[in-house]
């Protein structure tokens, strides 16, 4: 049974940092890409970052380039999103999702059907 569990969300001040974790079970990262997505109130779900299965290539939305870093620990079957220099506009529910092999929909709106499985989401709030 495939499952994705996000953790690490919370409240942080502008300029602060957080690390989100996405623990995967029921499959291995060797064959599945993992992406991070977010949805703010009243907005569509959008791509943030993704790491592919084969060579670990990474992709980022322009809004987070230089501030966010995606990484994975294959031994722990876990993907991380390191978020630095956080801004109030980063406030959203963050989701991880998986699909076979390659990343997609990292830039712009993502639809739930773009990925096969989704986690339950983790709230990130950036506020002073």
* Beta-strand proportion: over 45%
Q: Approximately how much helix is present in the residues? A: under 10%
**Could you tell me the number of beta strands?**
11
Profile the largest sheet. 7 strands, mixed
Q: SSE order, as H and E? A: EEEEEEEEEEE
Low-confidence stretches: none
Q: Give average pLDDT, whole number.
A: 95
Quote the distance from N terminus to C terminus. Answer: 40 Å
What's the overall geometry? Answer: globular
Derived structural class: mainly beta
Number of H/I helices: 0
- Structural Rg: 13 Å
Quaternary state reads single chain
Key attributes of the depicted protein:
0% helix; four-stranded antiparallel sheet; seven-stranded mixed sheet; 128 residues
SSE blueprint and pairings:
Layout lengths: L2 E5 L2 E3 L5 E8 L6 E8 L6 E6 L6 E3 L7 E6 L4 E6 L8 E9 L16 E2 L3 E5 L2
Parallel strand pairs: 2-11
Antiparallel strand pairs: 1-3, 3-8, 4-5, 4-9, 5-6, 7-8, 9-10, 9-11
What does this structure look like?
- Strand 4 and strand 5 (46-51) form a beta hairpin.
- The protein is built from no helices and eleven strands.
- Strands 2, 4, 5, 6, 9, 10 and 11 form a seven-stranded mixed sheet that branches. The chain has a four-stranded antiparallel sheet with strand order 1-3-8-7, with no helix packed on it.
- The protein has 128 residues and is mainly β.
Task: Give a concise summary.
Helices cover 0% and strands 48% of the residues. The protein has 128 residues and is an all-beta fold.
